[in-house]
Write a structure and sequence with these properties.
By secondary structure, the protein is α+β, with helices and mostly antiparallel strands. The chain is about 35% helix and about 25% strand. It has a 4-stranded mixed beta sheet with strand order 1-2-4-3.
Amino acid sequence: DAEIRGDLGDELGPVTVTTMGLSFYWMEREPTLERLRELTEPGGGVAVFGDTEWLTSGRRDWQDEVYALASESLDDLPERTGPRTEPYETPYDELTADCGFEGVDVATFDRTREWTVDEVVGYVFSLSFRSPATFGDARNDFESDLRERLEELGGGPLEQDEQVRVTSGRKRERNG
């Protein structure tokens, strides 16, 4: 892909390890991994980190409140599904292997994350389907109502059960 080659030019390489977080979701994943394999030194690798999107899948009472308030303000909110059990399009481990990385592994880490009210508000507005622009003139009212509801729940720290996933793979060592 010419655009990926331009964005990830030869001047970036060679690289030993490339790490990506949630940004990988928004990339042209296959061409990006193929280009990174070309730029990666033999024996080097790639790691993609991801975590749980909680607005539609969280299980805590405060997450239910945030979703309920957002659904009052917006018509096109994704369905609240609970924890995600099906993979996105092509799972990252399969995609990483398909792009020529070897020894592909997925490690998962369960943790409890604590959020402040400010962090929850920032997170909600950072989601593409909940950016401030999607609220239009109702943005300030939504934010005030959200802060009020979260304060009624104790104001924090607000705990989230989270699973962090790391998909990694290595480029084959040179033979000989």
